[in-house]
């Protein structure tokens, strides 16, 4: 092995190092090879991993990774929100769909990989915050650095003379700098330290700006709080949707919801058993543009142990009941019909919600009649409800107004097996036509029923009759319960406050030295002839207000002279300090 050592290089420790056990000459190993390095070991590797995980760059990386991991939740349908859309996606993508399902892309926020990123970010933030908090608390208890001997290299300097004694000047400066903030009465403006330097000279050191680090820590603590609050809300929340027809009621029980989702830690038995009845619904539309203006649902709320109360639910004005917010999500018409089978028996009677398809409430719906008698085939009726019908050509109708001025049901008729006994969930707003046959006219065109409120029409092929009884309205209610929403708001506001403090709080140090005037410097007794005041300021980074702040302090200190005689030199800017440190010990 060839080594190179420049001539004239004498290391006082080279001979001593060569004699250490396990090393040859020139610090090499005992066999002349490279020196033996100590093994890192399992504990060392764990320490290294912990330091990497709790570093700020890894925390930022995990935060960005969490945002990226949330993207599939907006791209792919999610099973808790729309299981029917997930089923359709799996059917349309027979190859990629099952793999995406195994990887959790249809329930992103409950997947293993999303939870792992979430927990790692939580651990990273906590591990990053705790050591910084300990250091910050120690810095808050420390005294400000003493004034240097010379102020000539500081970016802001000033001075003046006062007839008062040095100690009085120093006490006046301390009182000024320790003045409390109006908005933060518990926090002084500056942390101040005053001491006697001897020979009658008094020095004041003041420091502010630790609010910047406090805001930084508050921001990160608020992020941790947000993570905890969101996770808690996801575990304890529930959300359900229910359609309530005018004149009917709704009970806060899982069986009464059309769709219901809940967190893993929420028990449906904990639902508060209140009831809600829709008494009336009012909709207002612009008479010219037919645009919606206002929707109001008048309901009767009955909570446990209380008398029924009349309440209203409007758009963006939810009702609070049983710890949940009840939102008005949608509305429409639910024609009440009665269907009799061929034997004259009532096979179906009730209101069927039709879903609006446009601004004039052209609504589509399905009426399924499974309970027929005498071996007759089941009946399915598919069609549209037109609130204000107008025939624009023979056999073709359209709605011209969302209000029910002249309602009309236009239905086609199917018969056969509805498929309700297969055990496979069905969409109540769609008809499974795979085992059904559509009724046709003699010329092969589909049979179309047109019926208005109060009318009865015959079903084709002697299948019975259909009566359009009346046209009540329905509302779609969205009930949400999330106990963590208040905490999410609190932590979000704290995060903004901490971020603002960390960005805009100035970091400054001010020093002031009060020295006896030369005429009185050598006297041991007698009144002082005056005080010479020198001051300097230093900021961390660019601070355009540093000179103004120093001038303000000097003006306040010098302006309180006992006889009003004083002289002040304004603060000046001498440029940034080369190494960021004052020129002196």
From TrEMBL:
Keywords in alphabetical order: Cytochrome c-type biogenesis, Membrane, Transmembrane, Transmembrane helix
UniProt keyword Transferase present: no
Main location: membrane
Topology in membrane: Multi-pass membrane protein
Membrane-crossing segments per the record: 58-76, 108-130, 217-236, 484-505
Matching InterPro entries: Cyt_c_bgen_Ccs1/CcsB/ResB, ResB-like_domain
Region Disordered, residue ranges: 1-34, 562-585
Residue ranges of domain ResB-like in the record: 56-550
UniProt subcellular location: Membrane
UniProt xrefs under PANTHER family: CYTOCHROME C BIOGENESIS PROTEIN CCS1, CHLOROPLASTIC
Record's protein name: Cytochrome c biogenesis protein ResB
């Amino acid at each position: 092995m060839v080594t190179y050592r420049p001539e004239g290089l004498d290391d006082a420790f080279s001979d001593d190092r060569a004699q250490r056990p396990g090393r040859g000459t020139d610090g090499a190993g005992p066999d002349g090879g490279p020196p033996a390095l100590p093994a890192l070991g399992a504990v060392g590797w764990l320490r290294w991993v912990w330091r990497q995980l709790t570093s700020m760059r890894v925390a930022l990386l995990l935060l960005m990774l969490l945002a990226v991991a949330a993207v599939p939740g907006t791209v792919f349908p999610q099973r808790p929100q729309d299981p029917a859309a997930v089923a359709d996606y799996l059917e349309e993508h027979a190859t990629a769909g099952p793999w995406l399902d195994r990887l959790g892309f249809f329930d992103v926020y409950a997947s293993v990989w999303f939870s792992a990123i979430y927990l790692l970010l939580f651990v990273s933030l906590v591990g990053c915050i705790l050591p910084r908090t300990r250091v910050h608390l120690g810095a808050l208890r420390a005294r400000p650095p003493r004034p240097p001997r010379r102020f000539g290299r500081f970016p802001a300097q000033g001075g003046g003379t006062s007839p008062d004694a040095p100690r009085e000047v120093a006490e006046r400066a301390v009182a000024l700098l320790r003045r409390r903030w109006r908005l933060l009465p518990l926090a002084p403006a500056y942390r101040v330290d005053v001491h006697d330097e001897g020979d009658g000279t008094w020095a004041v050191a003041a420091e502010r700006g630790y609010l910047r680090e406090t805001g930084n820590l508050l921001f990160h603590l608020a992020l941790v709080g947000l993570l905890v609050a969101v996770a808690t809300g996801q575990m304890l929340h529930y959300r359900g949707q229910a359609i309530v027809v005018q004149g009917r009621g709704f009970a806060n029980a899982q069986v009464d919801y059309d769709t219901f989702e809940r967190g893993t830690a929420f028990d449906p038995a904990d639902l508060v058993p209140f009831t809600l009845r829709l008494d009336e619904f009012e909709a207002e539309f612009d008479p010219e543009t037919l645009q919606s203006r206002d929707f109001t649902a008048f309901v009767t709320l009955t909570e446990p142990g209380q008398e029924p109360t009349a309440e209203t639910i409007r758009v963006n004005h939810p009702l609070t009941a049983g710890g949940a917010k009840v939102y008005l999500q949608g509305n429409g018409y639910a024609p009440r019909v009665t269907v009799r089978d061929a034997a004259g028996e009532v096979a179906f009677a009730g209101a069927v919600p039709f879903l609006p398809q446009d601004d004039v409430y052209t609504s589509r719906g399905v009426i399924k009649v499974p309970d027929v008698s005498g071996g007759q085939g089941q009946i399915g009726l598919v069609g549209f409800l037109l609130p204000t019908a107008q025939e624009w050509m023979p056999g073709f109708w359209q709605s011209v107004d969302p209000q029910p001025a002249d309602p009309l049901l236009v239905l086609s008729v199917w018969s056969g097996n509805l498929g309700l006994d297969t055990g496979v969930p069905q969409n109540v707003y769609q008809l499974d036509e795979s085992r059904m046959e559509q009724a046709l006219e003699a010329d092969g065109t589909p049979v179309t029923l047109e019926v208005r409120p109060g009318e009865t029409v015959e079903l084709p092929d002697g299948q019975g009759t259909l009566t359009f009884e009346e046209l009540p309205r329905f509302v779609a209610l969205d009930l949400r319960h999330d106990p963590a929403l208040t905490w999410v708001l609190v932590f979000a506001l704290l995060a903004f406050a901490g971020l603002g403090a960390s960005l805009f709080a100035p970091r400054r140090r001010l020093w002031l030295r009060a020295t006896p005037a030369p005429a009185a410097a050598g006297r041991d007794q007698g009144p002082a002839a005056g005080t010479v005041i020198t001051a300097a300021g230093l900021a961390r980074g660019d601070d355009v207000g540093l000179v103004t702040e120093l001038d303000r302090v000097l003006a306040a200190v010098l302006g309180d002279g006992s006889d009003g005689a004083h002289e002040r030199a304004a603060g000046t800017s001498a440029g940034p300090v080369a190494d960021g440190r004052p020129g002196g010990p």
